[in-house]
Amino acid sequence: MIDFDFVSPTKVYFGKGKENLIGQAAKEHGFHKALLAYGSDRIKASGLYALITQKLRESGVEYIDFAGIRANPTIERVREGVALARQENVDSIIAVGGGSIIDTAKSIGIGFYYDGDPFDFNLKLAVPKKTLPLGVVLTISSAGSEMSNSCVIQNDALGIKQGLNYDLIRPVFAIENPELTYSVSAYQTAAGFSDIMMHSLERYHGDGESLADEWALDLIADTMKNGVRVLNNPSDYDARAALMINSSLSHNGVTGIGKKYAFVVHPLEHALSGYKPDITHGAGVAMIYPAWAKYVYKKSIGKFARLTERIFNIRGTDDEQTAIIGIDAMKKFFASVGMPTSFKQVGLTEKDIPSLVRIASGNGTRLIGGCPQSLGAEDIEKIYRSLLSEEDTL
């Protein structure tokens, strides 16, 4: 285990009806006039918007609507949000939704105090120094952005999707009522818990050993179990609750404590959904993980074998066979919950590969990951090409 600093300042209000506390939570955290960020009018049809705005008014917190944020959120929308926030002189942001809404709010928050383009932060051309405080009402278990230091934004003009990580942008509070996720479709639910799994899988596959490896494996196994329960019974409160808190804990850093890790499946997927924004991020990482694992497992056979034994309770004749069995089992699991396993299923073909490689590798100038190996343009192309096959096994 290596030395570390751990930051997780988000106060979580968890349980049935906790959305009723939005006014109280906002007031307690010093919100006076908030930008209220959300996606579609579904929160109005469900009654959630009316409840939230009523509770804000009762607590004396003003709000300005900022609606219409899409999945794979864009910097164009962020710029509009920054302009509105400045025009209305807000002092805070409330995000109602999932990762796309929260990440847009994070980007608006740091853009508010920056004279340049907010995408400069994603391009690593600038470092944020200050942000508007952010509160969250979570409506889907997936990205973990409600407690993370991560923010991923799409730039349609450049055709890229790029993340950033700064503790400054962690939300100050998050309201989590599992009942708010009952209406999430089966596909989006499965894509969501696939993303939850991947946040801890990426950390587990980092360099070195840490007690966090055990936490990561436990969280992955619990997410898989409760994900299947929810698909079988969408109103299973306990299973929904497990997915919701797993979403938060899988990406707040706790499953990577004491080790070095570098996300690699995520940037491989970001190239896909940056190039083709209708690809659901969680579905994309579920598709890519087995292909990446097959390509790199020989660099970390022991870890892959250990994952197989813990998650699937299977042991082969040796570590290598056990690792291969586990990679195949993970691919079958993702397929069983409706996630894609090939490019064809998400509308990509061989002719798209050069563009995808160019985006992922930064025109061949960038290496991805590092755990258990770094990936250059040639490696990335091989992984993507392996996804042209529709075979179900390795």
The coarse overall form would be globular
User: Beta fraction of the residues?
Assistant: 5-15%
CATH class of the largest domain: Mainly Alpha
Q: What spatial order of strands do you see in the largest sheet?
A: 1-8-5-4-2-3
Total count of strands = 10
In a few lines, what is going on in this structure?
This protein has 394 residues and is of the alpha/beta class.
Tell me what you see in this structure.
It is a single chain. The protein is an alpha/beta fold. It has two domains: 171 residues, 3-Layer(aba) Sandwich (Rossmann fold); 200 residues, Dehydroquinate synthase-like, alpha domain, CATH 1.20.1090. It contains 15 helices and ten strands. The strands form three sheets. It has a six-stranded parallel sheet with strand order 1-8-5-4-2-3, sandwiched between helices. The protein has a two-stranded antiparallel ribbon with strand order 6-7. Helix 7 packs parallel to helix 11, helix 8 runs antiparallel to helix 9 and helix 11 crosses helix 15. The chain is globular, with a radius of gyration of 20 Å. The chain starts with 10 loop residues before the first strand and ends in an 8-residue tail after the last helix. The mean pLDDT is 96.
